[in-house]
Amino acid sequence: MKLQILKPASLFILIASCSNPAENSFQKAVESINAENLASHVAVLGSDEYEGRKPFSKGEDKTVNYLAAQMERIGLEPGFGDSYFQDVEMAEITSFMDKPAIVKSDNKDLLLFFPDDIAIISKKTSDIIEIENSEMIFAGFGIVAPEYNWDDYENIDVKGKTVVVFVNDPGLYTDDENLFKGKTMTYYGRWTYKIEEAERQGAKGILIIHETLGAGYPYDIPRKSALNSNFYLAEDANAESNLMFNGWVSAKTGENFFESFGMNVDSLRTLSCTKDFAGFPLNSNISLKISNIWEYNTSRNVVGLIRGNKKPEECIVYSAHWDHFGIGEAENGDSIYNGAVDNGTSLAWMLEIAEAYKKLGIPPARSIVIMAPTAEEQGLLGSKWYTQHPVIPVEKTLACINNDMLLPIGRMKDVMVTGFGQSELDNLVEEVALKQDRYIYPDPNPHTGMYFRSDHFSFAQQGVPSLFIRGNCDSREFGKEWAAEQEKDYINNRYHRPADNYYPETWDFSGIVEDAQMAFEIGYRLCNLKEFPKWNESSEFKSLRD
Ligand SMILES: [Zn+2]
Fold first, then answer.
1. DSSP letters for 125-161
2. How far is the CA of 490 from the centre of ligand 1 (A)?
3. What is the pLDDT of residues 133-167, one digit of tens each?
4. pLDDT tens-digit readout, 104-136
5. How many angstroms does the Cα of residue 403 sit away from the middle of ligand 1?
6. C-alpha 454 – ligand 1 centre gap (Å)
7. Which residue ranges form the domains of the chain, and what is each CATH number?
8. pTM for the whole thing?
9. I need a surface site. Which of 121, 405, 435, 529 has the fewest CB within 10 A?
């Protein structure tokens, strides 16, 4: 291997760099990122032995110990005294319904079976939740957005009642680019927002009508998450304001449901997209009984760092969640939800970046925080906790560079920027992408609200400009159509399913190598920037930083 140095190309780098040792060590660090290392991490973290890496499980112990051992091997300083672990107290609640929910109206009674018709969960640490004849109110998209002069709750009182709403926001279903953000989902479109708003309105429960385009995934995803246990930060579980239940109904159930009132669900959605729409009582009520199994326990974020040599009190954070869904409903005889792509790939990406920083020889100007949060799949809980209890304050955090689900399909021409246009970081991405002969590709599916769906969002919510970037849309070898097929194949057949395994024969890590090199260089440049990167004027997060 050492003989390679004598190859002409390498020799040139060697000579050229004699005059610039910093550039030389930088280039060495970039080149240290390699496919073999990435593969070795995924092989371990995605193995059956890790049992799908669910919080509170044996799989958690194995995962966090592996990550801490890797951080130690790489030479990262522990984030918390002599420990890489940050305790995150959470409640785990598993909800189920033995009997179907009953919707009673003048016309007829409708039975909604769990979990195929109705995917219900409860954020209450109570053994039994019994809802009897709760009045149902339709509230359009369930949005109160003063900046868009929009209030779906304007003329209705939902206190103690059950709200029924559509997913996403009105912009998606019209061709009006000026309605909300057009096809780009705003946070008002996310199901998490719908629940938060219903809580603020004092409702007892909420049902969101599923629709694949608007949700960004099939009904099977909320269905599975209702079958699984769900996690909450301990301080949030059982809060006074919590709804007694929240959940989804399948599109088909939604259709039947409105049909029983003589309404067509599509016409109703169109109506709900108009400014003068007003919510209304459905003249019906719902009864259901939920049994909960719950416990409080401690999970862990894993955090290591490299202290900067000029401004150690300021940092750049790299993050990739370690958790997945553990062991659950079997498919084709497999019940382990390995999460090799989601998120074994990004953990490998992050560890390789950390190792590259150590290969610089001297520490970067600012500190580098390497963070693997818990419970991302459960609502970004670990990263939310971290941003409230950071190693280096969020005001001193220049940026978060997060990743989630890197597809192992080879080198890509594009760099897909999820949430493109949010901050000045986009310029930096563009520069580094150009160096790699790649181009920026704004998220082709902004209606799925991906910017709100991984840990960078926890940082954005604290005002830290954040990036979620990866090659995704244009294969160097096979082009765009092929890349889109690969993604679709993953989302339809492996995403959040037991088949999300590591397949050594077919996986090609070369694109992830480039993604890691790019993220490394972006962070490295951020370390040397004079000023903190800013949010763009139009960003909803700008005021948080200011
Ligand atoms: Zn993920």
1. --SEEEEEEEEEEE-TT--EEGGGTEETTTT---TTS
2. 13
3. 999 999 999 999 988 999 999 999 999 999 999 99
4. 988 789 999 999 999 999 999 999 999 999 999
5. 8
6. 7
7. 24-83+307-545 (3.40.630.10), 93-292 (3.50.30.30)
8. 0.87
9. 435
